[in-house]
Amino acid sequence: MNDRPERPSKSHGRLSARASVQPRSLMEDPPAPVRAWQARVITLCPELFPGPLGASLIGRALAQGLWHLETTDLRRFGEGKHRNVDDTPAGGGAGMVLRADVMGQALDHSVPRQAQGAWPILYMSPRGGPFTQARAQALAAGPGATLICGRFEGLDQRVIDHFGIEEVSIGDYVLTGGDIAAHAVLDATLRLLPGVLGNAESIEHESFAGDLLEHPHYTRPAEWEGRPIPAVLTSGDHGAVAAWRQSQAEAITKVRRPDLWEIHQRKKRGD
Ligand code: ADE
């Protein structure tokens, strides 16, 4: 590295001092500050968090400060003596609806002020768009997210529109509330953060859409309950093992997930 300025300035009769004449150690980029990924959860059941996210690899990452959890108890913002958070649906019908004003206050509390507008806010709902590996990757690449766990029939549409909330479903079934869905979304996202998984598990090329489902796995004992391990897996023929695994993965995907099989075929054809 040349310490001399490229175009010396002589305006004051001497070479101008520039950062480049500083000792080398001061010239190197400072390490990027490690900012914990912010998981912010709005829920009527704050006692459910971290729950399973406090265990195993994700739990260790929480203890290490790789991610941070903040739960907001929606009841805190409820109306009146009973801290009501819901009311009957306009137009009539069954069930109760979470109030826009109550949720609005909870969001004002949960969404970081400096990030307003750019901060992902996800409402866990069976009528949401499907949560995917690609969405998990996009979330993990950002600073964090607020996840709203609903109970009751739904959330007032006005608060969804006002905050630009994304409705997310984890599958075509109805849970009693969004908390379990939020656990699933957070687990899928947090495992993608740098340093959360050990070296043993690589996430470099995980995509899912268009991928085949995994082939079956076997380990010792060689025979169990009269069932041997498929002979090809103990043959030592690596080419034959790879071919067997590929054909098993294809067969399983075709039967269980014709939608993924279709995408896989299209990707292979290059269209
Ligand atoms: N809340 C209730 N059911 C749900 C689902 N399938 N996905 C996300 N949130 C939900």
Rounded Rg: 26 Å
Oligomer: single chain
Largest sheet: 5 strands, parallel
Give the N-terminus to C-terminus distance in angstroms: 48 Å
Tell me the strand percentage band.
15-25%
Summing up helix and strand content along with how strands pair, one would put the structural category as alpha/beta
Strand order of the largest sheet: 2-1-6-5-8
- The number of strands is 10
Instruction: Give the ordered list of helices and strands.
Output: HEHEEEHEHEEHEHEEHH
Q: Roughly how much helix do the residues carry, as a percent range?
A: 25-40%
How would you concisely characterize the structure shown here?
The protein is an alpha/beta fold. It has 8 helices and 10 strands.
Report on this model:
The chain has 271 residues and is an alpha/beta fold. The protein is 30% helix and 16% strand. The protein is built from eight helices and ten strands. A five-stranded parallel sheet has the order 2-1-6-5-8, with helices on both faces. Strands 3-4-7 form a three-stranded mixed sheet. Helix 7 (238-256) packs across helix 8. The protein is globular. The two termini are 48 Å apart. The protein binds adenine. Adenine binds at residues 124-126, 169-171, 173-175, 178, 181. Adenine is lined by residues 124-126, 169-171, 173-175, 178, 181.
